[in-house]
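Lay summary. Proteins are chains of building blocks that fold into shapes, and those shapes determine what they do. In this project we predict the shape from the chain. Here is one chain we studied, written as its sequence of building blocks.
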Amino acid sequence: MTPELEQKVFSALPPGEKLLTGFEVSRSLAFSRGRGGSSSAPDSRRPKVLVGQEKDGDGWTRFISRVFRVFTTDVPAQQRGVSVEGPSLRGERQKNKDSFFGGWDSLAGQFLIAGQPQSKTGVAAVVAVTDVCMRFVYVQYRRVLGGLGEAVELGASFPRDALVWTRRHEPKNEIQFGFSDGSWGTLFVPGDGEFMKHFPGTLGHKDPIP
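And here is the predicted shape, written in a compact code that computers can read:
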């Protein structure tokens, strides 16, 4: 996380809340080998953020982005998805090393949803790890000129002890997040070398899912 982005995140936190670290996330492109388990959140559940904060050129860049996604099959799921998955499926998902288990109402599901916002302007989704919780912060960036915009918005928060393990997941920069309810999900973490400094206990991709 750049110093400028860190300052934006810090400015959005509630008074007195201390920022310990933070990392950007976005939708995982990891392939799920099982019959389910995709970490791509349904559009109907993804939060709409930074509403009304569009900048010049945002519409054109959104169009280019959509065309690129179609040609690369990088298209978010349209269906509502499963809300809850039973424990009987967990062993199968562990064996397949799937990218997601738990359903969209699980802790992992809510974490993935928060990490895949919808916006008509450029947005960086940051997980701010504070002395109180893990809190999503959405920071505007300028799609055309580059750099950060002015708008910042707080998103969902999670108890710090809800996250019980992390694990690398192929391809590179994909990180799995395991939660106290037995669910897990995968997000893309750019520059995951910095992430590893703050989460040194992260499992390797050859390690089994706990």
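What the prediction tells us: The longest helix spans residues 58-71.
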